[in-house]
Design a protein that fits this description.
nine-stranded mixed β-sheet; binds 6-O-phosphono-beta-D-glucopyranose; six-stranded parallel β-sheet; alpha/beta; 20% strand; 34% helix
């Protein structure tokens, strides 16, 4: 098992499957361009896809994607373009992989990024092995890692048949976000915050991942997953693990990952009473969506962590498409103050920390201050920090750069992935009803009856 230093040799070729796909267009080309700009990419970049394309078409697609970025620079793009190579072929076809073997030439430490639908993972890994492409290799796997606990275990088995755990990089781009890393830093770098970080002072934690947009461009894929597989099993549980973990004993990769994983293992499996699923009105009109689909585009969930620090503190999560805003925000709500010099009733107007993870990072501290007058009553004010985002590295640039350099600190691990599936497995699919909600609202009304913090949800604005 890696400790984050043993396997830090730099890759000498970067191969990405799914080169003509959405992820490549939206994330991978911009990340590669940015790496070239920062002088961090100088190895061959080989795109693989089945689109009847040639290299010029790949380059044209890459240009279109990169030109959309705010910092497009012709010279930088030309450098990226000169590194690009392309293989067109079916993932089930041996000749695709013999062509790849040939293209790799003398490369001894290739890295393969599987930016493809999960049903192709096993085939591609088996074919890579058969074509002798896996010697000295690392593999980056995109989420979702399986459809449930059983298929995740199966996928891990396939990967481990050919690769050591240290050569497998399970990507969750939330772990690459500066704002998510700040959840860990902010707490451990400020002892006063860390001292308050338990059920002694914290009433509840809320994570809202709201998105205004629907799933129009990926109806078919989304309809096979739904919100829980798409963002809860991975991104949301990773955010919870960063918020709730114990302090790692060192900076070593293993130590940080151990703590994130340990707390995930203590999250109780969900029961049907812990969730409300929703589907926006009009979802069935989306191209690729089954006419009778009961897949959720919204979920509100209540997690509990069975350890001494978090006993009795609910962690609420709300995710959804077609909601009123596009904002991801964490609220750490403090318990009501009990002090007899104050004449206050418990209204929920209590102190908090607010972490806005996107679109623009913000950290807010809600503090009570006295209202003018004779009574000892107060109201909440907020201190806000808006970190400088100019130098923040986009998550895919950070993670692909780390993978190329052999640093797996910000990736997930087999036991962490399985621990997260164990939590959501009991409520996946149609285990609970799905309720309709109108676009532009905060989900179905059933949420207010069933899954909500003691003093109601904080709706980010
Ligand atoms: C992806 C999901 O993993 O994350 C999408 O598949 C979601 O459905 C996206 O929109 C959100 O990422 P971010 O970085 O914009 O919060």
């Amino acid at each position: 098992m890696s400790n984050g230093t043993e396997h830090k040799s730099k890759a000498d070729a970067f191969v990405f499957f799914g080169a003509s796909g959405d992820l490549a267009y939206k994330q991978i080309f911009p990340a590669l361009q940015s790496m070239v700009r920062h002088g961090k990419l100088d190895i061959p970049v080989i795109g693989v896809a089945k689109s009847n394309w040639n290299l010029d078409q790949l380059k044209a697609r890459a240009r279109e994607s990169c030109e959309k970025q705010p910092k497009f620079d012709e010279a930088v793009f030309e450098k990226l373009s000169s590194l690009l190579q392309y293989i067109d072929g079916d993932y089930a076809d041996d000749t695709t992989f013999s062509a790849l073997r040939e293209q790799l030439g003398k490369a001894e430490r290739p890295i393969y990024y599987l930016a493809i639908p999960p049903n192709f993972f096993s085939t591609v890994i088996d074919k890579l092995a058969k074509a002798d492409c896996l010697r000295g290799a690392r593999v980056v796997v995109e989420k979702p890692f399986g459809r449930d606990l059983a298929t995740a275990k199966q996928l891990n088995k396939t990967l481990r048949k050919h690769l050591d755990e240290h050569a497998i990089y399970r990507i969750d781009h939330y772990l690459g976000k500066e704002t998510v890393q700040n959840l860990i830093y902010f707490r451990f770098a400020n002892p006063i915050v860390d001292a308050a970080w338990s059920n002694k002072y914290i009433e509840s934690v809320e994570v809202t991942m709201a998105e205004v947009f629907d799933v129009a461009d990926r109806g078919k894929l989304y309809d096979e997953e739904g919100a829980i597989r798409d963002v809860v099993q991975n991104h949301m549980l990773q955010v919870i693990s960063c918020l709730a973990m114990e302090c790692p004993s060192s900076r070593a990769h293993k130590s940080i990952l151990d703590e994130r994983t340990r707390v995930l293992k203590h999250v109780k499996p969900l029961s049907p009473d812990d969730i409300v699923r929703g589907q926006f009105v009009g979802y069935h009109d989306t191209k690729g969506v089954a006419p009778e689909s009961t897949v959720e585009t919204f979920a509100a969930l209540k997690f509990e962590i069975a350890n001494r620090r978090w006993e009795g503190v609910p962690f609420y999560v709300r995710v959804g498409k077609c909601l009123p805003v596009t904002i991801t925000e964490v609220m750490v709500n403090f318990k009501p103050t009990e002090n007899e010099i104050l004449n206050e009733s418990q209204s929920g107007d209590e102190g908090y920390y607010r972490f806005r993870l996107s679109p623009k990072e913000e950290i807010g501290q809600g503090i009570k201050i006295k209202k003018p007058g004779e009574a000892m009553t107060g109201s909440i004010g907020e201190l806000v920090i808006q970190p400088n985002e100019q130098d923040q590295m986009p998550p895919y640039e950070r993670l692909l750069g780390d993978a190329i350099n052999g640093d797996s600190t910000l990736f997930s691990r087999e036991d962490a992935v399985e621990a997260a599936w164990r939590v959501v497995d009991p409520i996946i699919g149609d285990a609970t009803p799905v309720y309709k909600y109108d676009k532009g609202t905060w989900g179905p009304s059933e949420v207010e009856e069933k899954v909500k913090p003691k003093f109601g949800w904080h709706n980010p604005k």
